[in-house]
Amino acid sequence: SQETVRMHLVMFPYMAQGHIIPFIELSKLLASRGGFTITIVNTPLNIQRLQSKIALLRLQAENLDIRLAELPFDGTSHGLPPNTESTESLPHSLFLPLLQASQQLEQPFQQLVQDIVRKEGRLPACIISDIFLGWTLDVANRLGIPRIMFCTCGAYSTSIYYSLWAHLPHRQTDSDTFCVPDLPHIRLHRSQLSQILAVSEASDPWTLLWKRNTSCNLSSWGTIFNTFEDLEHDFLDYFRRITGRPVWPVGPILPLTGTLKTKKIAWRGNESAVDAETCLQWLDSHPASSVLYISFGSQNSISVSQMRELSLGLEASQQAFVWALRPPVGTTELSSDHLPHGFEERMRANNKGFLIRGWAPQLMILSHPSTGGFLSHCGWNSVLESISQGVPIIGWPIAAEQFYNSKLLEEEVGVVVELCRGIDGEVRKNNVERIVKMLFDGHDEKGIELRKRAMDLKAAATIAVSSTGSSITHLDDFIQKLKYSKGMENQG
Ligand code: UDP
């Protein structure tokens, strides 16, 4: 029967929403288009959260064979609080310990894959794992299985990282800007270097960890990117050159647009902190393309003083907004003191601001016709979600590769205008007001250009994922290679 010939894929995202969400979308795509059996591996709390999501997928398409498997995890020996299994609500100082602790999963992961082999009497077709879990290559090699990296970040940012890491240690320089070694046309400013690179001296713990990670990633069987050729062609080519292996850009991998307007989408990642219907009604009460959506993603926040200036600037702009509020940096809970006095009441009274404390139904908001702009930290998923809905972005990158995403989209793509950088960056009420007004002003040349670019990108993204588009062609090529490969040439 069909069941007995299905090939099995093991998928392993890093423990962060920005990674798990696109892995789920990719699993769906591979299960439906490739007819594969998929096992998604993660730690117990993440698996528990995914149960209802996967149950719903099974209801939507009976034929989808997606399973969940958990690995025991305890990060306390790395200084993590008990039950920490995600970057969500994790202070930045604990990002490295979580990454280090995730290496403990190597043995249990190998055991789990061996159990699958024993049960099915044959090897899984491949292991598709996260850019942060390079060590899974060693497991794959020991068992004789191809390992594919699924990069949930863009090709531009990944290329910059890999180039910088290939040239460690970085010499001290007094200059505020410098060129990326292998991509000299990219000039970075000091403020765009994430902390990880700023401290890199070849022997610091980040570097040691990434050294192994990078070499594993570069020598894997191939790489799948959540991006599309039209958006990042040159950087995908760069990645092809440095790996010498296939690179498949199959994105943007998002739920079908037809399902976006339903409440189901309200709990992508986490369950929404607001009632989806209430949120939709609020959006319905505003004119087309008139609402600014504000979010800094699943793991980043801004400082208290930045939060105040942003609020004052929003109020002064008189633009309607939906704001997914997270506790400011250094706090664990949001209090009304963090916002200007009476702000929340005024915004509610004049129907200008819809505040969400906690997890927002982001894709549902972005896909609503009233949404006309996104003030974003430029996490890659947020970027893809925004441009695929034709929504231009006000950039405020906070950490990691967000600086590069913002730079790509501002300088090379033209869909971002940057407002601020990081949690120490200066943000002034007047500047917020000016940029927000510019984005929504029907007569401002820059605003018009940003909106036009967003619509162009929406069209390009739609073409990429259409049946003859570049992303689907790459996806089919990947599926074919997997089905007809004779083992694992060129790995490790
Ligand atoms: N997200 C959401 N609601 C929130 C915060 C985040 O739905 O309140 C989703 C968002 O749509 C995206 C992912 O979580 O799919 C965040 O990924 P991204 O790469 O944008 O940022 P990260 O959280 O990894 O920094």
Structural overview:
With 492 residues, this protein is an alpha/beta fold. Helix content is 45%, strand content 15%. The protein contains 20 helices and 15 strands. Strands 3-2-1-4-5-8-9 form a seven-stranded parallel β-sheet, sandwiched between helices. Helix 3 (44-60) links the parallel strand 2 (37-42) and strand 3 (65-70). Helix 7 (155-165) runs parallel beside helix 10 and helix 13 packs across helix 18 (429-440). The longest helix is centred in the C-terminal third of the chain and has 20 residues, at 445-464. 47% of the residues are buried. The mean pLDDT is 92. The structure holds uridine-5'-diphosphate. Uridine-5'-diphosphate (UDP) binds at residues 16-18, 21, 268-269, 295, 297-300, 324, 359-360, 362-363, 379-382, 385.
Q: Taking Cα atoms only, what radius of gyration do you get, to the nearest Å?
A: 22 Å
Strand content: 5-15%
Distance between the termini: 35 Å
Specify the biggest β-sheet. 7 strands, parallel
Strand tally is 15
What would you call the structural class?
Answer: alpha/beta
- Outline the low-pLDDT stretches: none
Number of helices: 20
What integer is the average pLDDT?
92
Bound molecules: uridine-5'-diphosphate
What is the 3D form? globular
Strand adjacency order, main sheet: 3-2-1-4-5-8-9
Helix share of residues? 40-55%
Q: Topology of this structure?
A:
Layout (H helix, E strand, L loop, with lengths): L1 H4 L2 E5 L4 H18 L2 E6 L1 H17 L4 E6 L24 H7 L4 H15 L5 E5 L5 H8 L3 E5 L3 H11 L11 E4 L2 E7 L5 H4 L6 H14 L3 E4 L3 H15 L3 E3 L7 H4 L15 H9 L6 E5 L8 H14 L2 E6 L17 H7 L3 E5 L4 H5 L4 E6 L3 H9 L4 E3 L6 H12 L2 E3 L10 H12 L4 H20 L5 H15 L8
Parallel strand pairs: 1-2, 1-4, 2-3, 4-5, 5-8, 8-9, 10-11, 10-13, 11-12, 13-14, 14-15
Antiparallel strand pairs: 6-7
Helix pairs in contact: 5-6, 7-10, 13-18
The structure holds uridine-5'-diphosphate.
The site of uridine-5'-diphosphate has 21 residues, from helix 2, helix 15 and helix 16.
EC number: 2.4.1.-
Family: Belongs to the UDP-glycosyltransferase family.
Keywords: Glycosyltransferase, Transferase
